[in-house]
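tool=predict chain=A
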Amino acid sequence: MMAVSPNSVRIVVIGDKGTGKSSLIVAAATDSFPPNVPPLLPDTKLPSHFFLDGIPVTLVDTSSRPEDKGMVAEELKLADAVVLTYDCDRPETLEGLSLRWLPELRLLEVKVPIIVAGCKLDLRDDNSPVVLEEVMAPIMHQFREIETCIECSALKQLQAQEVFYYAQKTVIHPTAPLFDQETQTLKPRCVRALKRIFILCDHDKDGALSEAELNAFQVKCFHAPLQPSEVDGVKRVVQEKLPEGVNEVGLTLTGFLFLHALFIEKGRLETTWTVLRKFGYNNDIRLADELLPPSLFKRAPDQ
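tool=predict ok
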């Protein structure tokens, strides 16, 4: 059986020499700035209170020496996510992302989410302000595999832990299987899964989820019913944007799909993933084999 969600997350940190890879790892794992960091750290476990959904996280440091390129490539093959670092105080390391690192990751066919982390934010000259969105927009447009960019400082304990929070979030609640960023729509496989879930929850088969059906759905997925005011709030949000999303009975399929697209656009992917996993879907939005009745596969040779 394929796992419904990953059972561990391995985050590999790469980047130019001296961009602060090891310091970032130690700062995130110990909540303190290390005065002396060895050139290459052993694999480091994040403390358990950082685990999303209780899934353990290992951070992997890598060498920047050209002769260790092969070892880094091996580590990247095992990665669930990659953190790619540059030094906020050295513009050439930012240029190196699109000139060297990102093309290299494509060449190695690394197909995991990439988080770009600008380290040593404390060293940046305050007189030359940088707007991260403006600097990163062209790079992110060229390399769609970048999930997010964040600036941090290991010395000042600024956003060091957030770097790895985003990285594990992209593994456990990935965007790609659910949503097409180009067209800003749900992907067909995700739509099919949500349609099936809607039909299973529409107990009286009247094409809409009544308040009772919505509550049964909420309890199954999130272990708590909605308050009547919350039900009204959900309906109001849908009705304002999409009148056909609600009818006199309750929430229609169109409304149900619209809500999930909205959650995803607002970065609340865990909501949709919780629903999909509760109904037996894995990270590829496929049902586990044991959830499919064997009679589905008994076919005559000519069928």
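The mean pLDDT is 89. The CA atoms of residues 193 and 285 lie 7 Å apart.
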